[in-house]
Amino acid sequence: MELESFLNERKKMIDQALEKLTPPENTFPPTIHKAIRYSLLNGGKRIRPILTLTVNELVGGNYKSIIPFACGIEVIHTYSLIHDDLPVMDNSDFRRGKASSHKVFGEATALLAGDGLLTLAFQIMTDPTLCQSHNPLSILKSVNLIAQAAGLQGMIGGQTVDIETQGKKFALPLLEYIHTHKTGALIVAAVRAGAILGESTEEELDALTEYGKKVGLAFQIIDDILDVESSEKILGKETGMDSAQGKATYPQIFGLQESRERAETLVEKAEQTLGLFDHSRAKTLKRIARHICERIQ
Amino acid sequence: MELESFLNERKKMIDQALEKLTPPENTFPPTIHKAIRYSLLNGGKRIRPILTLTVNELVGGNYKSIIPFACGIEVIHTYSLIHDDLPVMDNSDFRRGKASSHKVFGEATALLAGDGLLTLAFQIMTDPTLCQSHNPLSILKSVNLIAQAAGLQGMIGGQTVDIETQGKKFALPLLEYIHTHKTGALIVAAVRAGAILGESTEEELDALTEYGKKVGLAFQIIDDILDVESSEKILGKETGMDSAQGKATYPQIFGLQESRERAETLVEKAEQTLGLFDHSRAKTLKRIARHICERIQ
């Protein structure tokens, strides 16, 4: 199957599951229900959950059975976008081609929608019926590593330093801290959870973790590049924001050309880490790594 | 043991555990580390975790082994206070006798500290090593019900309606929705988690759930009364805020006297729901219910 159709099919699967996993309208206040659906069912690329499913299949798991975990990761990602866009944070008015949550629903609802989504993610991933198809210990391990990745020592740590260093001078180690924590950690967790829930070997888990680290960093470098190169129309959010806000980015340190080369090198290395798998089985994951580097949005 | 010494001893136990469960300083940015410790280790009464431990002991559990779950609930409670105090929400400048988080650290850090605590709570409660002392299915059930109680259909739903009805006319059903969701849900979850982790019978769980509902509502009615009656000095936060913000409260509908009577009736009923337990074993839980109603802060 062509990669594009593969990604579209998986994206559809995730979209449908997210729709089903959102609690019904009459069970909580309508404003926040609207706000949650607005951000959650809004044409995201679903890269993180697709990675989870693909890794799971690679290590021999029944990938359909782990859709709730894949969705949990996407729900966490969505909450982080809503909170990041708030005026006290990045103050972004657009997201995925539409007005950001607080522009439509107000700041209080956007804040609560984010809190609600973060909590919902853990509700989805700890559903006791998941024990029917999964080892409870593997479930706990996965949810725990996802919480770590999303938390103080992961995504939130990265976002904190990102906000704190705006407009300041920065060196590469700081930029790497931001990128590996703000974006990388959850991508690595998406990969690792897929492996653990598929009962992978330790060796497979180690290789896939390395793959996740490299893909995660490449993903963020490309994001930095797109913020400079792409247009608002293609990207669906304001561009040039990083530079306007004095944010730490790869192009600022290395320029566009070297940044792109670095991302490409990371993708090659990511592909190499999959050497212990049959090429025929690992090729989708390799193609996803390349796709991330070639995306124009 | 006198109730006061019992509560102090348990509070100390919780405080020490919270200190230990906060990730070490050098593992995430110092600003947010300070903000988290500021709100988390700040003299809270620890009513929710104490309920969890006491219920667990009552149904025959080894209460010391469930301290991480009890702490997880307190961490969720703490995040909710930080976010509720933000200017876009209740805009409260004081909490527990000190300046609220955003007044000290700024809104961005307060927002991130809240997000970080909510995530940390789930990280703590899904620690895979907890399987050494607990049935993994009971762990998942407990974490799941806590997530539900803290989420859209629980605490966040209640907070949303609370914010939305400020300054508007309201009737008793709406007020009850706010109280049972905003405060009640997490208190019920604290009680239920203690029972489930102690492998209680269904009958015990049902009775304790009823106890939790009644104590939770009584707790919030008393909070409403204290906002009218108490002084800022005793309460450690601004008083008269409910009325100033046009909030839905019990005293507004029933007046102070009837509100207090209703809280007392709820406490009596809470005590009665514990009828299936030996009085000698259940008396601490009964006393806690009464204590909640008699507190002056």
Question: How does this model look, in words?
Answer:
The structure is a homodimer of 297-residue chains. The longest helix of chain A has 28 residues, at 202-229. With 297 residues, chain A is mainly alpha-helical. Chain A is globular and about 50 Å long. In chain A, helix 3 runs antiparallel to helix 14 and helix 7 runs antiparallel to helix 9. A two-stranded antiparallel ribbon of chain A has the order 1-2. Chain A has a single domain (3-294), classed as Farnesyl Diphosphate Synthase (Orthogonal Bundle), CATH 1.10.600. The model of chain A has no long low-confidence stretch (mean pLDDT 93). Helix content of chain A is 71%, strand content 1%. In chain A, strand 1 (94-95) and strand 2 (98-99) form a beta hairpin. Chain A is built from 14 helices and two strands. At the A-B interface, helix 2, helix 6, helix 7 and helix 8 of A face helix 2, helix 6, helix 7 and helix 8 of B.
Quickly list its features:
homodimer; 297 residues; mainly alpha; Farnesyl Diphosphate Synthase; 14 helices; 2 strands
Shape of chain A from CA axes? globular
Oligomer: homodimer
pLDDT under 50 segments of chain A (min length 5)? Answer: none
**Using CB atoms under 8 Å apart, which protein chain pair has the greatest interface?**
A-B, 51 and 51 residues
**How are helices and strands ordered from N to C of chain A?**
HHHHEEHHHHHHHHHH
What percent of residues of chain A are in strands?
under 5%
Total E-strand runs of chain A:
2
CATH level 3 topology of chain A: Farnesyl Diphosphate Synthase
Major β-sheet strand ordering of chain A? 1-2
CATH C-level class of chain A is Mainly Alpha
Tally the helices of chain A: what do you get? 14
How many domains of chain A? The number is: 1
How far the N terminus sits from the C terminus of chain A, by CA atoms, comes to 22 Å
What do the pLDDT scores of chain A average to?
A: 93
CATH superfamily of chain A: Farnesyl Diphosphate Synthase
Proper CATH architecture of chain A: Orthogonal Bundle
